[in-house]
Amino acid sequence: MGSSTDLRDECLRRLLVNSVYWGFGLDVPAKADVQLVGDFQPTEYGFNTYRRGVKPDDLALSADAK
């Protein structure tokens, strides 16, 4: 669980969502919805692999994804 590419795995996303429920003292659902919202294309980790010129508006969800 060290990079953004790890979040492609549904089981890891479920672990994170369940830990938030547990941390807030809420009942952990048997099968919480952990589907990705919108397009998720993480970059591989490494030196000089970031995307230049990306602005926050470029990452905003479209009305279709909400």
Structural features, described:
Helices cover 21% and strands 0% of the residues. The chain has 1 helix and no strands. The radius of gyration is 15 Å and the shape is extended.
The dominant shape is extended
Q: From the alpha-carbon coordinates, what is the Rg to the nearest angstrom?
A: 15 Å
Helical fraction? 10-25%
Instruction: Tally the helices.
Output: 1
- Contiguous uncertain segments of 5+ residues: none
Determine the strand fraction and express it as a percent band.
under 5%
Secondary-structure map:
Layout (H helix, E strand, L loop, with lengths): L9 H14 L43
Looking at this protein, list some descriptive labels.
66 residues, mainly alpha, extended
Outline of the structure:
With 66 residues, this protein is mainly alpha-helical.
